[in-house]
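Lecture 7, part B: from sequences to assemblies.

Below are the input chains for today's worked example.
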Amino acid sequence: QQPVQSPQAVILREGEDAVINCSSSKALYSVHWYRQKHGEAPVFLMILLKGGEQKGHEKISASFNEKKQQSSLYLTASQLSYSGTYFCGTESADNYGQNFVFGPGTRLSVLP
Amino acid sequence: DAGVIQSPRHEVTEMGQEVTLRCKPISGHNSLFWYRQTMMRGLELLIYFNNNVPIDDSGMPEDRFSAKMPNASFSTLKIQPSEPRDSAVYFCASSLGGAGYEQYFGPGTRLTVT
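Predicted structure of the full complex, as structure tokens:
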């Protein structure tokens, strides 16, 4: 079952912060985050594993609350290059290695 | 490393024709994924191979779609017969250890069925 992402779209000014949320109705083993720029392929940002570990990538970090089956992606001091569509991908805990599914995406636009 | 290679990059075909999309994963990766992306349906996983064996093909839409991975360095996705609703961007991705690992995406094949 596809995870839910919110918001669907967000517009920021350069330097502002944003949070993108991902939630699932299933128990999760891992959450993945990818960014896709227009006309390009998705690019990996980070993986969060069961255990609530928070990971970071430049000024982009994320958290994973396995009890709530939720993950959040934090973008701080956004740059123009952050524009794109952000997808979370989830791996189910009860069917490890299978049932990997991407969310519908959150479109982020960073304006100068 | 060359990354994941897909061919062709663009394909335009008429309804009813057979279409074959090709993918070469990154050398050393043992998992390969085929995705379809449309505005309406987003990024859908069609099929996932691990060590050349299909692990999850629950996303394959119907019998018109078939995928093979005859060896570790090559995979095909075939649509026969093609229909206009198959128009989409098809991505191939590979990873070192399965769905739980970082996936490296190819540039995609844009398919248009008229």
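Note for the exam: Chain B has no helices and eleven strands. Keep this in mind when comparing with the next example.
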